[in-house]
């Protein structure tokens, strides 16, 4: 049933000011946006597919507020479509942005195109795209108010404000409320399930950076491993060659040769076996030998950081992921780690450079980061009992070729949840996706039906047994596949594996 609202409903005088405990509402603006039209590609519409939004009218309500004593200024933007499906879909952010950023128009447009009321928050960070703009109040003093808002505080505020606006504008509360996000938005979704279990009925939290201090600290390890070895940076094309060699060795392990590593746990390719192999570098247009520096970099990227004594610190990315960013273009001397974590938040000194650190110093800084910021921004508490008891449903996917956030971190989190709640599949399912990069891209495998599956689970009680996807196989030929809920794996029933009907989920 579609709920239609009159034009007069969209005005500051007609919309009640939201009630937010512990906050002061500073302003509320409201105005109609008419005939909104935008093509939203699945590439920027995570958890959803392509969406062509045509001539939608919606009321844009923008609320600004502050938490007295915290010196913050937060903005929540909510779009209320004239023709409403009686549901709310909140959207998340990406990178260091909570929302209201460059991709939010796609996220929110996709939602109103399907009739949802939708909302986004900037967590008080404004238009800042990088933390350098807000992280430090002064050298040695982190802006903890901003970090707390990004980490968790603004998330519950967003839910409360959006639901109040929906109730005031339409005269009824949403029948169901959902969260949809990937990357930072995935971390936010898990944080909501952990800290605010009644905020949303269903949460799509994909490629989540749940263990934020660990994974951002791990990003620097390949650069450091190279520096500690006294080697110059490899060319990016060398790392591309090593990735191709890993795929060549490990692609067949699932029984289908398609250019994709599906069973990463069985992949035992050693990059040092390729040192001195010759290959054609596309960047130079010439043949060259693979350097030891390239093998060191790939090994560090795939293994993840280890202490100086070889102890595990965090996971690495999977072989098959694009690690070319750890290399350089011809003519460059070295890569830049673009440190914005250790210098701003750990050393609290913008001139600090992690690349000059010894292995012992890195180990200490890694542990310090985890100790200092887990409670603020990590979303890795595995006790989802209250979310389950509230009837919430949680779905997530993660690309096995993600070069940014290691999938094994998501697998680890899922296993930890299952230790506390053995019946975890009753409310939480995680779908690893072979060949998929970060949120989208790579060889494909983006599950564009995940949000629809979440809604069906929440509203009809039907849990998804698999998700259909399409991948670009050998020679760029598009093939139908399925994603299975972890720990099940997709296994071919026979044939060429090009149709999803030839696959089944096997535990």
Task: Provide an overview of this structure.
By secondary structure, the protein is of the alpha/beta class. The chain has three domains: 1-171, no CATH class; 175-210 and 379-464, Rossmann fold (3-Layer(aba) Sandwich), CATH 3.40.50.1820; 214-373, no CATH class. It has twelve helices and 19 strands. The strands form six sheets. It has a nine-stranded mixed sheet, with helices on both faces. It has a two-stranded antiparallel sheet with strand order 1-5. A two-stranded antiparallel sheet has the order 8-9. The longest helix has 27 residues, at 144-170. It is globular. It starts with a strand and ends with a strand. The mean pLDDT is 94. Its EC number is 3.1.1.-. Belongs to the tannase family. It comes from Byssochlamys spectabilis. Pfam families: Tannase. Keywords: Calcium, Disulfide bond, Hydrolase, Metal-binding, Serine esterase, Signal.
Compute the average pLDDT. Answer: 94
| Radius of gyration computed on alpha carbons | 23 Å
Fraction in beta strands: 15-25%
Shape: globular
Order the strands across the largest sheet as they lie in space: 2-3-4-7-6-10-11-14-15
Keywords: Calcium, Disulfide bond, Hydrolase, Metal-binding, Serine esterase, Signal
InterPro entries: AB_hydrolase_fold, Tannase/feruloyl_esterase
Family: Belongs to the tannase family.
Organism: Byssochlamys spectabilis (Paecilomyces variotii)
């Amino acid at each position: 049933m579609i709920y239609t609202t009159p034009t007069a409903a969209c005005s500051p005088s007609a919309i009640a000011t939201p009630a937010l405990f512990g906050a002061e509402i500073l302003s509320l603006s409201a105005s109609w946006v008419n005939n909104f039209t935008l093509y939203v590609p699945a590439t920027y519409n995570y958890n959803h597919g392509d969406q062509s939004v045509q001539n939608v009218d919606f009321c844009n309500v923008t609320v600004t507020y502050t938490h007295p004593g915290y010196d913050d200024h937060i903005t929540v933007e909510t779009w209320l479509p004239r023709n409403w499906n009686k549901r709310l879909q909140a959207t998340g952010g990406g990178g260091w942005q909570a929302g209201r950023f460059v991709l939010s128009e796609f996220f929110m447009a996709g939602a109103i195109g399907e009739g949802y009321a939708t909302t986004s928050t900037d967590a008080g960070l404004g238009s800042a795209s990088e933390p350098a703009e807000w992280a430090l109040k002064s050298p040695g003093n982190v802006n903890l108010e901003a970090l707390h808002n990004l980490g968790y505080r603004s998330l519950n505020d967003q839910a409360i404000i959006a639901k109040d606006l929906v109730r005031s504008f339409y005269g009824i509360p949403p029948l169901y409320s959902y969260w949809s996000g990937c990357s930072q938005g995935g971390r936010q979704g898990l944080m909501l399930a952990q800290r605010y279990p009644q905020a949303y009925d269903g949460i799509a939290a994909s490629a989540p950076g749940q263990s934020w201090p660990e994974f951002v600290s791990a990003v620097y390890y390949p650069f450091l491993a190279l520096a500690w070895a006294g080697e110059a940076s490899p060319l990016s094309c060398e790392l591309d060659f090593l990735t191709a060699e890993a795929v060549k060795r490990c692609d067949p392990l699932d029984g289908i040769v398609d250019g994709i590593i599906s069973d990463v746990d069985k992949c035992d390719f050693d990059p040092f076996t390729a040192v001195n192999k010759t290959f054609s570098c596309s960047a130079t247009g010439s043949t060259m030998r693979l350097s030891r520096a390239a093998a060191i970099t790939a090994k560090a990227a795939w293994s993840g950081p280890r202490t100086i004594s070889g102890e595990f610190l965090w996971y690495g990315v999977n072989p098959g992921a694009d690690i070319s960013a750890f290399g350089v273009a011809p003519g460059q001397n070295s890569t830049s780690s673009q440190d914005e974590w250790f210098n701003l938040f750990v050393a609290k000194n913008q001139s600090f450079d992690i690349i000059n650190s010894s292995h012992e110093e890195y180990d200490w800084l890694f542990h310090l980061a985890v100790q200092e910021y887990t409670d603020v921004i990590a979303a890795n508490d595995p006790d989802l009992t209250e979310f389950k008891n509230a009837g919430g449903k949680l779905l997530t996917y993660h690309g096995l070729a993600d070069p940014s956030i290691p999938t094994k971190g998501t697998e680890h989190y899922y296993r930890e949840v299952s230790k506390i709640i053995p019946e975890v599949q009753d409310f939480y399912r995680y779908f690893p996706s072979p060949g998929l990069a970060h949120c989208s891209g790579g060889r494909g495998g983006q599950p564009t039906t995940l949000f629809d599956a979440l809604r069906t689970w929440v509203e009809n009680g039907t849990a998804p047994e698999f998700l259909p996807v399409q991948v670009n196989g050998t020679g760029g030929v598009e093939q139908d596949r399925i994603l299975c809920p972890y720990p099940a794996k997709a296994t071919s029933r026979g044939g060429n594996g090009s149709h999803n009907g030839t696959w089944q989920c096997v535990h």
